[in-house]
Amino acid sequence: MDHSEVNEAVRKYDDLKRYTYSDYASWDDGNRYELIDGIAHMMSAPSAEHQRISGKLFRKLSDFLDGKQCEVFYAPFDVCLNGKGDDDYTVVQPDLLVVCDEIKIDDKRCNGAPDMVIEIVSPSTSRLDRFKKLNKYQMVGVREYWIVDPEDKGVTVYILENAKYVISAYEGESVIAINVLEGCEVALSDIF
Q1: CA 110, 162, 94: angle at the middle one, nearest 5?
Q2: How far apart are the C-alpha atoms of 167 and 145, rounded to whole Å?
Q3: Arithmetic mean of pLDDT over the chain
Q4: pLDDT band, very low/low/confident/very high, at 123 (cuts 50, 70, 90)
Q5: Global pTM?
Q6: Which of 40, 104, 114, 147 sits between 20 and 30 A of 85, alpha carbons compared?
Q7: Which residues, other chains included, contact 27 with Cβ-Cβ below 8 Å and sequence gap of 6+?
Q8: What is the rounded distance in angstroms from the CA atom of residue 99 to the CA atom of residue 133?
Q9: What element of type H or E holds 35?
Q10: Could you list the residue range(s) of the whole structural domain that residue 176 is in?
Q11: How many CB atoms lie within 10 A of CB 54?
Q12: Are 47 and 70 in contact (CB under 8 A)?
């Protein structure tokens, strides 16, 4: 790409309509969207395998958190990452999220960074989950971020240390200790 092509691509990006949570909440076309910096990204329906993995992880987290302060939520559940509510330009629907500060939860959404986010990637979401969301989660202070890859049967874990993610990859018979939930572990053999 030469300099003029880069400038044209930047101009097109800058010309895109930006939306807020208020705009997003008013859409009733039957589709699911996420907003990243005000730009709408349509979400496709999850596969059966995606749902199986999500269900297993939710059960594991829910059982562990029973009677504890933190709560686990599953998609579709809105997260206004910057904590601005109706004026937020970044609204995501992670597959699973753990929130330990009940003040962040209202009747419609989570306002601010969850303590943990889990995204189960598919070919259509991989780029968004691995780059744009990863950067957003790091910027707003999500303390632990998991990318679960059903195709590779692996999990990449990002732990926030000094405002930067430290990365670990797991596959095979690995058991992952959840950093933000002391005493909670997930065996990959239990989810794949």
Answers
A1: 25
A2: 10
A3: 92
A4: confident
A5: 0.90
A6: 147
A7: 33
A8: 17
A9: strand 32-36
A10: 3-191
A11: 19
A12: no
Q: Tell me how long the chain is.
A: 192
CATH number at residue 117: 3.90.1570.10
Of 144, 136, 192, 189, whose CA–CA distance to 165 is shortest? 144
Task: Give every CB contact of residue 135 below 8 A, 6+ residues apart in sequence.
Answer: none
The beta strand positions in 68-153, using DSSP E, are: 71-74, 78-80, 91-92, 96-99, 109-111, 116-120, 144-149
Q: For residues 61 and 72, is the Cβ–Cβ distance under 8 A?
A: yes
* Residues near 172 by beta carbon (within 8 Å), at least 6 away in sequence: 188
Output the six-digit token pair for 159.
């732990």
Output the six-digit token pair for 46: 């999850």
Long-range CB pairs of 36-44 (<8 Å, 24+ gap) are 36/90, 36/92, 36/128, 36/132, 36/133, 36/136, 37/89, 37/90, 38/89, 38/90, 41/128, 43/93, 43/125, 44/122, 44/124, 44/125
Token pair of 93 as six digits = 């629907």
CA dihedral 47, 154, 43, 133 (to 10 degrees): 170
For 175, other C-beta atoms within 10 Å of its C-beta total 11
Q: Which two tokens stand for residue 140?
A: 């707003």
Total domains in the chain come to 1
- Please report, in angstroms and rounded to a whole number, the separation of the first and last CA atoms in the chain: 41
Q: 175 near 157, Cβ under 8 Å?
A: no
* Contact criterion met (CB below 8 Å) for 96 and 129: no
Identity at 4, one-letter amino acid code: S
